[in-house]
Amino acid sequence: MSLGPSAIRGRYYDGKTADVREVTVVATPGEVILRDAADAALVARWPIVELGVLGDSEHEAVPLLVRRNGEARLAIDDAEQRRALGATVPEITRLGARRPSTAGRLLQFSVGLAAAVALFWVALQSGSDLLAPLVPNRLQARMGEGVYAQLVGQRPLCQGEKGLTALNRFAGQVADAGGYDQAIKVRVVKGGPINAFTLPGGIVILYSALIDRAADGNELGGVIAHEIGHAVHYHPIKGLVRQFGTEQILKAITGGYAEISTLGSGGTLLLALRNGRAFEREADATGVSLLEKLGLRADGMSRFFEELLKIDPHDPAAVAGIWSDHPPTAERVAATRRPPTGAPDFTDAEWQAIRTMCR
Amino acid sequence: MSDPVGGAVGLPPPFEPQPVPSHQAPALTPTRPVYDGKLSELYGIYLRHLLLMVLTLGWSRFWGRTRIRRYLWNHMAVLGDRFEYRGRGIELMVGFLIVLAILILWAGVVWAIWHFGLHDRAVPGVDIVNLIFVSIALIGVPLAYVGQYSGLRYKLSRTRWRGIRCAMEGSPWSYGARATFLNFANAMTARLLTPVVSVNLARPRIIHARVGTQGFDFAGNVGDIYGRYVGFYFLNILAWAVAIGIAAAALGGVIERSGIGQEEIKAFGDLGRLRTILLIAGAAFGAYILFGVMILPLRCWWRAYLYRYLVSHTRAGNVLFTTGISTRQMWGYLVLNYLIVLLSFGLGWPWVMHRTLRLIANELWLYGAPDGSAIGQPPDKGPRFGEGLLDMFDVSGV
Question: The whole model's pTM is what?
């Protein structure tokens, strides 16, 4: 069972000083004996039951042989000699393990990484669809109020009571038709731009410039129905979840390097914009179908988009292409065009109250 | 060892290490560290780390970092003996969680101050979230320096050479205070104090480091390098002026030759246009190249000189150090490595680590050998957890 004294050579560190001794290693049935390579003086006797291996052949060039609970170490540089010792002493077989195949591991982990990223991406897309409606209403409302405070919290609001009542009545009616289970809260911010948006928690923000631009109550009704389309599909929450998820995956695959994250934020932005265009198309379609379901005029949305095209015939959304968070306006006009049939979205009195609510 | 880099082959650089008193003059045989890591093996470890990062949403990073260190440390040898890294992922994670808990506590204190004291006197547009982030950013600057020092202490305490633990003495807080003050003073004096900062921050990191009971000495003086720095400082200003002049002339020439009118320049400002975005990206790339060609080599020249100075004024007992790192090599280290990581979206990290260790193995020279029998284990075992501050406030990398 014992190997010849010159068969295995190693470097012995006693763990007390930084001295290094060249030793020969002999394995017997009960112990490993280390002798000085120069004069064969006994250096150490390590019982086999107390032997351990530090590290592994994947990470360490030379895994070390140690006596457990001690600081001393033995380094056997020659891989064949380590294997010979490991074969002789089953308790330390790990000492002689071969290095794993590099090509196989590279292929295995590259494929695994690509699959994990793809899986994460799919899970993020479908998971956000499934989970967004499950986010508690109170939490959604709190998030929405937080974003509202950041975006327009300092801007004055229009306080006309009758106008607000009319807007909330209409928005609530459309949301109910869409099966949305939270109360819609419409707020009108004084001034421009000609825009509207929806926040988590069913908060719909309209700018008074948009109301001023609308030719009649049905155009405004179309815009509000579009915003309710966002709410019933939980687009604000889905957008936040997807953006957060994309940032996390980017951070993970770039090693969390800040500069790359900055560079990668361009990619994150593009993905967010792509999400934005899909959300807008879905909100357009849902808004129009909810108005039709209620028997209300559904032609206002496309007429309002035509108004926007008159303001800027270049259609910034079409020019910007993938850099735009909205689809081209002409495309939206065509997709939402409906005949002028059905009951008006607002009564004349309501429309009058809305028109004057900011004065 | 296969494919060794370093060792004693090659000529030592012409930069002499600091003189040693004659009564303890050692045998000054020059050697270099040996690095025998393979890039493909390192990539195998790194790709597994990335895969686990995705699957665990980043929480495996502590273990991934530890595995990479084990590989790098054990493939670097000095005087024929490899380093060992014995840190554990759990120690890094606990360190991170401790710092996270402290920050949450801090946010709670700021919230309490806001809620009970400042709420009524709030500045328009400033809310509690702004206040918490600003306060964390403010304490983050000094804490990043504290984290650098304590992170180095953790890494050294988990590093062994010939079975002997390395260590770091001194107070991270004192280092953090010194670094904050010096960097603030440097910023206030238009960076004229850079040599003072470099030497006075290198000194505590060097003289408090230990290999077991063996300490390091540093004989550097700010006065030695000030002349070179002043030359660099004014050359740098000149280079900036020339670079800006060239950029302005080039831009003017392009506009003049292409006959672009005022209206088109105005239309160019429409940020929605894809052409505008591409042109801005092209101009930024051109400016970066100009900056790279004219400014960065100068900075690399200074940094190479500084590294040579710091290394050659360091010794550990009988062992003296020197390096002949050149401006070109410093460019590879500072600029090329940065570009590799940036343009590969982080996938170039292993290559950069590999290149850096090869550079160290090629360019660090040791004169003499330590008296091993005189070096014992350090008295303390180092911190129980590590790098929480570094992870939170700084890019700790590997």
Answer: 0.80
